[in-house]
Every structure is written in structure tokens, then in C-alpha cells.
Design goal:
By secondary structure, this protein is an alpha+beta fold. 32% of the residues lie in helices and 36% in strands. Strands 1, 2, 3, 4 and 5 form a five-stranded antiparallel beta sheet that branches. The longest helix is centred in the C-terminal third of the chain and has 19 residues, at 56-74. The radius of gyration is 14 Å and the shape is globular.
Length: 75
């Protein structure tokens, strides 16, 4: 099954950073083991936070929201 992932982590300089949205595949058993009730699923893996979505547009909207907040912080 196809899904989308974005990974957030804190860089060596202490500044949060994230990857581009990655399109990935997982087997049916793994896909069924995840509760997809929410449009974005959060997973903590080590020192990273992964966000998964069936539709990549949800992750696009999340990034837009983060960028908007950061722009307003500068004002």
C-alpha cells in the first residue's frame, strides 16, 4: 500500500529540520497494523518524529502551517 512520510529531527545546530515528503510502500500486514483513523499519524522513532499519511496533501498542509507560524514569529 502506498503512503507518504515526512521526518522531523533537530539538526546538529539545534534547529528543527524536516525531509521532503517521501512516497513509500508497505506490505498489507504492516498497513493494517496502523490505525489510520486520523489523517496524519505520528510516530516517534529514536530522536526523530515521523508523520505518515495516506494522502500526501495532508503533509503539505502541515508544512504550510509550520512555515506560516515561523513567518509570523519573525514579525
Amino acid at each position: 500500500m502506498k503512503y507518504y512520510r515526512i521526518i522531523f529531527r533537530t539538526g546538529d545546530d539545534g534547529v528543527p529540520e524536516w525531509t521532503d515528503i517521501i512516497e513509500q510502500e508497505m506490505d498489507d500486514e504492516s498497513f493494517q497494523s496502523i490505525s489510520w483513523e486520523k489523517p496524519i499519524i505520528r510516530q516517534a522513532i529514536g530522536d526523530q518524529t515521523h508523520f505518515l499519511a495516506i494522502d500526501g496533501k495532508y503533509l503539505d498542509a502541515m508544512i504550510l502551517g509550520i512555515k506560516t507560524i515561523k513567518e509570523h514569529e519573525k514579525i
